[in-house]
């Protein structure tokens, strides 16, 4: 289905910060970029391989892309990868040549959409969240996979994260040469799932740092970091939950695109996702434990302060009593007329203080 996009080009010129409500009033199927990051420059690469041959194309934005899409050979497996979503018109022209449903393009350009799988019969469309290893903080980006016949189109927000798969395909004796397009799909999904282990490592590092800081220096600023860590866990777990549903659907799907041999591989990926899910439950308990440690540390510091203040107050009770008594206007108090009386009183107050401090130290109160 072809959509005339000229009417909507003005909306493409908006900065990415304005795209939250960009689709208001538009009909469904209009590709408008929606995302938290500015879209990167679009680059389209491709490769074609059979059991005996392999060809890689660095740029297929021109006529070579049209030939790659329109080729109908059953022996050839064609893979087109689109990185960067800046050139909406170019990307949409690829989708139009492949005769894809317009809702697929709409979902791809909405990078805030949730991970899901859509089966259009002859087309399989998958949206996944990938965890880039280069990001210092926990961030996810979208990966889209479209399968139609022997054509696979993958779309990523950033550069191509599947260079290692291309390297494996180039080997003439690799498994890719004897399997179909569904094995390529499995390899991409397996690669995406592996990035979640990078996310787990980052979460483990954050948890260790927070645990040490809470024990050594439970300052008030760390409470915000603990809350951010808990929110990160919730977000990550939600994404793993969606990933689990997708992989489970693929491992049990009766789609003609997926063969029985690939379903076995998908079940192995499902086991990896379950392992990630279980590890996240452990980290969630760790986050709750860190919060409890923080609250206990704050409570212990408060108790320490109150104990010191109590000891000081108790020490000053007899001293205050003595000074109060001798401050009254009585002429018959002991030592009131003695020139050295005040020295006796001061000595007595120092002795009482020393005895009380010794008693407190004996009981290990200070």
Describe the structure in brief.
The chain is of the alpha+beta class.
Would you give an account of this structure?
With 366 residues, the chain is an alpha+beta fold. Helices cover 53% and strands 12% of the residues. The radius of gyration is 35 Å and the shape is rod-shaped. The termini are far apart. It has a seven-stranded mixed β-sheet with strand order 2-1-3-7-6-5-4, with helices on both faces. The model is unreliable at 1-18 (pLDDT under 50). The protein has helices spanning 9-12, 63-70, 88-97, 102-109, 163-170, 181-216, 222-252, 260-326, 341-362, and strands at 43-49, 54-57, 77-83, 116-119, 123-130, 141-148, 151-156. α6 (181-216) runs parallel beside α8, α7 (222-252) packs antiparallel against α8 (260-326) and α8 (260-326) packs antiparallel against α9.
Order of helices and strands: HEEHEHHEEEEHHHHH
Query: What is the tally of helical segments?
Result: 9
Number of strands: 7
Using only C-alpha atoms, the radius of gyration works out to 35 Å
Oligomerization state: single chain
Strand order of the largest sheet: 2-1-3-7-6-5-4
User: Low-confidence segments, ≥5 residues, pLDDT <50?
Assistant: 1-18
Secondary structure elements and pairings:
Blueprint: H1 9-12, E1 43-49, E2 54-57, H2 63-70, E3 77-83, H3 88-97, H4 102-109, E4 116-119, E5 123-130, E6 141-148, E7 151-156, H5 163-170, H6 181-216, H7 222-252, H8 260-326, H9 341-362
Give the tags.
disordered N terminus; rod-shaped; 7-stranded mixed beta sheet; alpha+beta; 9 helices; 12% strand; 7 strands; 366 residues
């Amino acid at each position: 289905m072809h959509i005339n996009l000229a009417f909507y080009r003005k909306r493409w010129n908006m900065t990415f910060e304005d795209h939250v409500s960009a689709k208001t009033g538009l009909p469904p199927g209009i590709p408008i970029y929606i995302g938290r990051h500015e879209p990167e420059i679009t680059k389209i690469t491709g490769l074609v391989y059979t059991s005996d041959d392999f060809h890689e194309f660095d740029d297929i934005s021109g006529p070579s892309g049209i030939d790659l899409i329109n080729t109908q050979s059953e022996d050839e497996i064609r893979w087109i990868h689109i990185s960067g979503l800046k050139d909406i018109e170019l990307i949409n022209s690829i989708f139009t040549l492949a005769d894809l449903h317009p809702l697929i393009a709409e979902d791809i350009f909405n990078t805030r959409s949730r991970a899901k799988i859509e089966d259009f019969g002859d087309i399989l469309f998958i949206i996944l969240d990938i965890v880039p290893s280069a990001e210092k903080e926990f961030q996810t980006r979208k990966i889209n996979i479209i399968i139609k016949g022997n054509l696979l189109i993958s779309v990523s927000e950033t550069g191509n994260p599947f260079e290692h798969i291309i390297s494996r395909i180039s080997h003439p004796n690799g498994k890719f040469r004897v399997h179909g397009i569904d094995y390529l799909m499995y390899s991409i999904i397996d690669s995406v799932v592996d990035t979640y282990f990078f996310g787990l490592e980052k979460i483990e590092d954050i948890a260790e740092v927070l645990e040490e800081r809470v024990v050594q220096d439970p300052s008030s600023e760390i409470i915000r970091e603990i809350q951010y860590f808990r929110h990160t866990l919730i977000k990550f777990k939600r994404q793993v939950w969606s990933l689990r549903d997708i992989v489970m659907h693929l491992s049990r799907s009766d789609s003609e695109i997926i063969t029985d041999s690939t379903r076995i591989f998908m079940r192995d990926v499902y086991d990896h996702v379950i392992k990630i899910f279980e590890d996240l439950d452990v980290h969630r308990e760790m986050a709750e434990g860190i919060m409890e440690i923080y609250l206990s540390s704050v409570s212990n510091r408060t108790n320490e302060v109150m104990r010191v203040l109590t000891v000081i107050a108790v020490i000053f009770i007899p001293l205050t009593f003595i000074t109060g008594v001798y401050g009254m206007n009585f002429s018959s108090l002991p030592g009131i007329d003695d020139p050295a009386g005040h020295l006796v009183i001061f000595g007595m107050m120092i002795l009482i203080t020393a005895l009380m401090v010794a008693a407190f130290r004996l009981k290990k109160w200070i």
